[in-house]
Predict the structure.
Amino acid sequence: MLDDNDFYVNENSLEGWVMDKVRSWRDHYEANYKEQFDEYYRLWRGQWAKEDSMRNSERSKIISPALQQAVESAVAEVEEATFGRGKWFDIKDDYADQQRMDVQIMRNLLQEDFDYCKARKNIAECILNSAIFGTGIGEIVMEEVKYRRPATEPVMDGTAMAVGIRESDRTVVKLRPVLPQNFLIDPVATSIDEALGVSIDEFVPLHSVETLQESGVYRDEQIVSDAPDNDLEPDQNLTVYDNDKVRLTKYYGLVPKDLFDMATMEADEEIVELEPRDRRTGAL
């Protein structure tokens, strides 16, 4: 959400340290994997490209659908093996616990939450990405939603019942599929647990960032539009739409403690400055 020039000016800031890592990881991805992943996507979608030609004299632009059929067939088999039995997950109770009902209730509630958050559809998309690119990536996010359910309420001193919908705030956990070009990881690590950190770099709608700013998730700062980047788009052959979208970089990992303490101190100072003043005295 910030201009790249801001990070070059203040290299000792937490944002500058994070973006320096993200840029180096992006360079490693583009140098080693980008061309292969672009080829995999084109062949799956049946899109012709000159670099995919086997001979210089080749003039045909027909892409055989055999690869797409093989990928979708493999994905269908994995989905059938995962979700085909109805209950696609189970929870095992402690061996010493003789009360089995608590685990069954927990499993049913978890199944209900998965259905509400559309976890099955998102897992299926991760499986499809893994079949195309060789790796499936998902981001676990927490979101506050308005939960509506049917409810009744006594009215007229209990002589009648009002039937309607009761609304309440609820925090849910969702799985969001991430494409490989939007996921960056420490190149020397072999797993997420061993990595210094990971980053998700993508374009998101402008209104979603503004909504999170109003709710207090993000700091209330000016949003600077970044230059278009086709490498971050799902389909790079489509015309890019540049209006009402912003490049958002999320980092999950370790940071230097001194930079983190400095950033936390600056955030606390901003909160103190934004405290409302007393209307009569003007004091804090």
In short: The two ends are 31 Å apart (CA to CA). Strands lie at 137-155, 160-178, 183-185, 197-205, 245-253.
